[in-house]
Design a protein that fits this description.
Component of the ESCRT-0 complex composed of HSE1 and VPS27. The chain is mostly helical. Among the domains are: 10-136, Serine Threonine Protein Phosphatase 5, Tetratricopeptide repeat (Alpha Horseshoe); 232-340, Methane Monooxygenase Hydroxylase, Chain G, domain 1, CATH 1.20.58. It is built from 15 helices and no strands. It has helices spanning 10-18, 31-39, 44-58, 61-77, 80-85, 89-100, 106-119, 129-132, 151-155, 192-195, 208-226, 232-259, 271-293, 297-320, 332-340.
Length: 342
């Protein structure tokens, strides 16, 4: 199936310019010219809606705020033809996500809240009925931001899965690959989760590969039995350090993610972002080990909070790691899901 080429004309060029850092957040000076350009072509409203949605989806915070300002300006000034034609479901869904998602910048969410309330006045305006209801709605396909669907969260769920998880991953290993996968001739595709979900095979009592696997399980069990008992007093300083490192690591990763221009660069192609992502994965394993052992309320609250921050940072990386080419006007978020969780 071949996708139809999306329109790219003076409408998109104007919106690209108007969302740049050259303009202040609430500057409406370019709206009259944009309105005229939209009126010149039949596809003007639809192209404007798509260009605005792209900025809301992939732009930095300033571009998202500018896109919202431009949309509000067009709703007020572009006339009945624009009002009846621009509000397709993909734009509406993007607005819902921007207004409610935990991944949205607080300033973007705040502006969405203000505009949604303001737009409620258009409930009787032809074409704007659905825009007027945004203040009452949540995203209809909010499936991305769940821990069950997060590969990074699943991979770090077992804190005792790797003997060398505190060591930096080898550059030759793929992101999230188990550091033990090279030890077995058939383990190339196994990850942390799958490594601990095998059931006993009737043939596991045989020799060859299965016998070796059984011996390895026995050795792993022996190692677990020999693991030193947890001593809270001895581990206090290490726990303090891990909690502090987690806070710094999540802040640094979030700042790095915010600084990347996703219209130009893929998140997973940015070395600094990838390094921060891997660091957060290792720290989460460490924090989960402490949570597993610690019962003291004095420490548990801080450890759980650190874990929550790490999970949010890891999921943010995954959510933002989307190629702009994976976008689709007809199936926006599902296209993203196919891209991330393939």
């Amino acid at each position: 199936m071949f996708s139809q080429k999306k329109p790219y004309s003076a409408v998109t060029v104007n919106i690209e310019t108007l969302t740049s850092e050259t303009y202040e957040e609430d500057d409406l000076s370019g709206i009259p010219d944009l309105v005229e350009v939209i009126k010149l072509q039949a596809s003007g409203p639809a192209e404007a809606a798509r260009a605005i949605r792209k900025k809301l989806k992939y732009g930095n915070v300033h571009r998202q705020l500018r896109a919202l300002t431009i949309l509000d300006g067009l709703i007020q000034n572009a006339g009945p033809r624009f009002q009846r034609a621009f509000a397709d479901e993909t734009l509406l869904e993007r607005l819902r996500v921007c207004g409610t998602s935990d991944l949205s910048d607080p300033d973007v969410k705040r502006k969405c809240t203000e505009l949604f309330r303001s737009w409620s006045q258009y409930k009787s305006t032809p074409g704007l009925e659905r825009i007027a209801k945004l203040h009452q709605e949540l995203p209809k396909r909010k499936v991305a931001a769940t821990q069950e669907r997060s590969k990074a969260v699943r991979e770090t769920e077992n804190p005792f899965g790797e003997e060398e998880e505190d060591k930096p991953p080898s550059p030759t290993h793929r992101t999230g690959e188990s550091s033990r996968s090279h030890q077995t001739p058939y383990g190339g595709a196994s990850g942390t989760v799958s490594s601990f979900s095998h059931t006993k095979s009737p043939s596991s009592s045989g020799g060859g590969f299965f016998g070796g696997s059984k011996d390895k399980k026995k050795k792993d069990k022996d190692k677990k039995g020999k693991r030193k008992p947890f001593n809270l007093e001895l581990e206090k300083e290490a726990m303090k350090s891990a909690i502090a490192e987690s806070s710094i690591a999540t802040t640094n990763l979030n700042n790095t993610l915010q600084s990347i221009n996703r219209e130009r660069e893929r998140i997973s192609e940015n070395p600094q972002a990838v390094a921060g992502f891997e660091g957060c994965k290792q720290l989460r394993r460490k924090i989960l080990r402490y949570i597993h052992h610690v019962e003291s309320e004095e420490w548990l609250g801080s450890l759980l909070r650190a874990n929550d921050e790490l999970v949010t940072a890891l999921m943010t990386f995954e959510q933002l790691d989307r190629s702009i080419d994976a976008d689709s006007d007809s199936d926006d978020d599902l296209a993203e899901q196919a891209h991330i969780y393939r």
